Amino acid sequence: MKIIDIALKDITRSLRSAVALVFMFGIPLLVTGMFYFMFGSSSSQGQFNLPRTKVVIANMDRGGPRLQASSKSVPGGIKANTLSDLVVKVLQSEKMADLVDVSLVPDAVTARLAVDKRQAQVAIIIPANFSRQFADPYGQAVIEFYQDPTLTLGPGIVKSILNQFMDGLSGIKIVITVAQDQLQPKDYSLIGGIVQQYLETSMLQSENWAAELLDERAPGKLPKTTGSLERILGPIMGGMMIFFAFFTGTSCAQSILREEEEGTLPRLFTTPTSQSTILSGKFLAVFLTVSVQIVVMLIAGKLIFHINWGDLPSVACMAAGVVLVASSFGIFINSLLKDSKQGGMVFGGVLSFTGMVGMVRIFAMNAPGAANLGNTVSLFVPQGWAIRGILQTINGSVGIEVFINTLVVLAWSTAFFTIGVWRFNRRYI
Amino acid sequence: MKEKMINAIEVQNLHKSFGDIKAVQGVSFNVNQGEIFSLLGPNGAGKTTTISMLCCLLRPDEGDALIMGHSIRKDPNRVKAVLGVVPQDIALYEDLTARENLTFWGKMYGLRGSTLKARVIEVLEIIGLSDRANDRVGKFSGGMKRRVNIGVALLHKPQVIYMDEPTVGIDPQSRRSILDSVVDLKNHGMTVLYTTHYMEEAQELSNHIAIMDHGEMIACGTHQELVRIVGQMDRITLTIGSSAANEESDDILRAWKAVDGVRQVTSDDGAISLLADDSNQVLPSIFEAAATNGVRITSVDIKEPNLETVFLHLTGRALRD
Questions:
Q1: What separation, in Å, do the N-terminal and C-terminal C-alpha atoms of chain B show?
Q2: Cβ <8 Å between A264 and B56
Q3: Which of B225, B199, B201 has its CA nearest to residue B212?
Q4: A70 by DSSP, 3-state: which?
Q5: Residue B220: which domain range?
Q6: Which ipTM value was assigned to this complex?
Q7: Does residue B313 lie within any of the structural domains?
Q8: Are residues A98 and A228 in contact, defined by beta-carbon separation less than 8 angstroms?
Q9: pLDDT per residue as tens digits for the range A148-180
Q10: pLDDT values of chain A reduced to their tens digit, one per residue, 429 residues
Q11: Residues of B in contact with A272 (CB under 8 A)
């Protein structure tokens, strides 16, 4: 009973500290809120609203061998006379209407000028020999992509669409080249048939072609209720929550040192309460305070930012892991300190450093080149494993994957707790 | 027939060292039930270390103590249950209210439910803070905090209460209030072990006084018994001109020591203390020696024998902060 009394006293003190409240709830919510307002708003029902990118197209293609694509072979049943027509009509299609605003200009100079004058963000210039070069097995069909260098997101999306489209066409070209090499004398009618067959089985024929062109429109691996904005906010808020949970754990555990300096801990030792009971109460306070923080943050994330943390058992598993590892890490770190004055260095140094290393996983998430390295580096610190756990639940992982991660987090917790308790026992008991 | 006094505290040959520093060396004393016993000594004398051993915070290297018959070595939990401790520094939770502090500490002493609630109200009345019960302790004045600090030790109605220099650094009014409350505790049958380096406090409050210096107990008894150690000697404190104090102090000290009737001469920070059999008799010779040595006396203070005189007599040093 006395253990609970001590724990409740400590929690009351923590929750009365403005600084503690800011670190526990204020900053994580504020940072997530900043991203929320940066990428969307509550009025958009959590959808990721990007402004339409203005694209001007100068299509100077004079055509080549007759395009033998039937309307059913191209996206949305678009009819096109030349290959460049196909490019233009794909970008002008209804499915692209909420992403790009396409207008046609007569020549390359006008197109570039529109970008220079910021009337458009991207100019696509299709040269006169585009179709002919495409049809020539040894020719190179090149589209010029001219963009406002100060912009990244909108032009990036257009470029991505174009690249995927051109990748598809490259496949067609390979088909044509192989067919020309194999068929003697050249049987263009047969080649046309092969191309058509290729088109019918290729990505371009897919019903979800637009979704495949732009990943943001296809949250295939994610729970259906998760929108793009939540996919950004989930990891950010999860990362912030864990980053500051470790601060809370350390700050709460520091109350042992503070009480020693304030004289209340020695006074507690003069009461008929055993030292082990007193320390257990202090440890319980750390676990309960971090638990309150995690539960409040999970609920706030769900209610305010509509974050789907994952299925309940996995989230509970992950949350328990975070509470245990953040609390035991705090107890461990404080057991190494001589007094609370050294705490400033720990707060500024160790926690910030390990926290940032742990969050490398989130920072590198959308950078394919750095993701693997980031994931590996983050696993050197307990925060990295906790963040791995939260990303697993957000991504809808269940069962053994979450279980294994939780086991590793528990192993970290056990190691920290054992060392921390041993050192505190040596000090006081 | 006189009722036999029972010892509330029996201290037997306590020793405690911290590395090479011998903080307490062979301290023994007994405290009768219902009396105020003061440990008097300068800072670093070993008073707090002795108290810390008696309230089971420190384990003695040697020796033992019985508190209401319970050994501090063998039965620390029973000792703690009969003890109330008022530490030297205020040991309270400043972000909790006075009531919350008392309630929490009451629970630590094993009080629960309605007993705890009633006792908290009683203690708030005793310390005169009923009207501020729901204010955070952090907003209290130093004196009010001291009162809550004492209140915590009273919650479980202890048989013995330790008060470790409870009047350090507070205003005269609060000091007076605390001294009155100590007497009040005694009148309610509590045994009080009081440490202080203020001679007047020990003199005013105590039934018995033990004087400590350098970890040893150098004298113990009632005020009268202690004063009797120095007999009827007066303490004369002289202040001399600053130039003389610097240049010729050794000569004048030797000259005064040679005066018939002067028992002891000590110098401390420009103030010179003399123990003399009769101040009226020795003063003319003292002034004469000063004139002969070219020393100008700027002030003279004569005091009847007191604990300060005893400490000076026993240690050769003044009892100072």
A1: 44
A2: no
A3: B199
A4: coil
A5: 7-228
A6: 0.79
A7: no
A8: no
A9: 877 767 787 888 888 877 777 777 777 777 777
A10: 889 999 999 999 888 888 888 888 888 888 878 877 777 654 455 455 567 888 999 988 887 765 544 444 455 555 667 778 888 888 888 777 778 888 999 999 999 999 888 888 899 999 888 888 877 767 777 888 888 877 767 787 888 888 877 777 777 777 777 777 776 655 666 666 666 666 666 544 444 444 444 433 333 344 444 556 667 788 888 888 899 899 888 888 888 888 888 899 989 999 998 888 888 888 899 899 999 999 998 998 888 888 888 888 888 988 999 999 999 998 898 888 888 888 877 777 888 899 888 888 888 776 666 777 888 888 999 999 999 888 888 887 777 888 888 899 999 999 999 998 888 888 876
A11: 77-78, 80-81, 108-110
DSSP-assigned beta bridge partners for residue B71: B66
| Of the candidates A339, A348, A370, the residue with the CA atom closest to the CA atom of residue A258 | A339
pLDDT value, residue A197: 66
In this complex, the residue of A5, A17, A264 whose CB is nearest that of residue B91 is A264
What is the CATH T-level fold of the domain A53-217, as seen in this structure?
abc type-2 transporter like fold (3.40.1710)
Same domain for B187 and B98, yes or no, is yes
Q: What is the pTM of this model?
A: 0.66
Residues B224 and B241 in one domain: no
Q: What residue ranges of chain A are covered by domains with CATH 3.40.1710?
A: 53-217
Residues of A in contact with B57 (CB under 8 A): 266, 269-270
Task: Locate the chain B residue with the closest alpha carbon to A266.
Answer: B57
Query: Tokens 């943050």 correspond to what residue?
Result: A297
- Asked if A9 is an interface residue toward chain B (Cβ–Cβ < 8 A), one would say yes
Q: Among B185, B202, B228, identify where a domain stops.
A: B228
| B205 and B264 fall within a common domain | no
Which chain A residues are closer than 8 Å to B104 by Cβ?
A: 5, 9
Q: Collect all residues of chain B within an 8 Å Cβ-Cβ radius of residue A9.
A: 93, 96, 104
Nearest to B57 among A264, A269, A273 (CB): A269
Per-residue b or e along A328-367, where b marks 16 or more CB atoms closer than 10 Å to that residue's CB: bbbbbbbbebeebeebeebbeebbeebbebbbbbbebbee
B59 touches chain A (CB under 8 A): no
Residues B200, B205, B209: CA angle, nearest 5 degrees: 80
Residues B86 and B148 reside in one and the same domain = yes
- β-strands B234-240, B297-303 pairing: antiparallel
* Residue B57 at interface with chain A, using a CB cutoff of 8 Å: yes
CATH label of the domain that carries residue B115: 3.40.50.300
Based on the structure, what is the number of domains in chain B?
2
**Same domain flag for B176 and B300:** no
